[in-house]
Amino acid sequence: MIIDTTEIQTINSFSRLESLKEVHGIIWILVPIFTLVLGITLGVLVIVWLEREISAGIQQRIGPEYAGPLGILQALADGTKLLFKENLLPSRGDTRLFSMGPSIAVISILLSYSVIPFSYALILADLSIGVFLWISISSLAPVGLLMSGYGSNNKYSFLGGLRAAAQSISYEIPLTLCVLSISLLSNSSSTVDIVEAQSKYGFWGWNVWRQPIGFIVFLISSLAECERLPFDLPEAEEELVAGYQTEYSGIKFGLFYVASYLNLLVSSLFVTVLYFGGWNLYIPYISVPELFDIKKKSTVFGTIIDIFITLAKTYLFLFISIATRWTLPRLRIDQLLNLGWKFLLPISLGNLLLTTSSQLLSL
Question: What CA–CA distance (Å, rounded) separates 105 from 227?
Fold first, then answer.
């Protein structure tokens, strides 16, 4: 059988074209992921700088001012310092669990960003179970904290890991019930559908007006999930040295630090999406019609405006969380668990029953 050289060249060029298409497809998939990770990293650096500036203002002291103008490079300098610090391992601990704990805590929170819509056109995965995927993924973070506490072979670290698990369980249930109420109101568990359902009546269609009790419970539970003051019992310095972080140093300690701020950012984003209309900011009789006409005509400009609105709402709640941390005192562990099980759980259950009854009556 004789094959013409032109046919061989055609086959080779076709195979090269197919391989180039495959490479292009892989790059096209990875670009939005890397863009989102870069944006999240910059957002965390901004939060760290804001927390230092806001806490300095509340306590009437000078904030970061030497690393860069207004100290904006201080968080980057701290991260670089942790990256080059010596990474110590406990001699009698379980090194595999000790090393895997911080990674699980960070990865589980990073995966939650895949279902957050920054605009109608900017979301990695618009899933029909988006909000419940976030809850299920974020519930893996306490497993990493338990692994860290147990792998440290330190009773203070182990107690801190147990406290983190107990706190997470007690506040995840009210959080889930609040999310379920929102899903019933929106007739969907997709984050995009929830935002779209709130856009029907503009500003007055936001879920915060229909679910004020659920919003308060969700806000308190999300603060407890992030282990922020007044709920930072797992690493209470005067009781447990530094909790599950006691034996950590270098970049592994930095991963825990990053995980706490990643969790704070994702919680604020979900407050915005679930209760405050996401990227929608239409206020009847007050909005500027020309701006929204331009937004409808230009896809790029509209996406940028949507992202800006989402981030503005998110950073408003970040400011509330930071101000709360530097204002309220820490609770005791019994007070924290009593608040979760005896108050927030019954209130969230009652809110879910009221929401279900109103939805059934409206049918």
Answer: 13
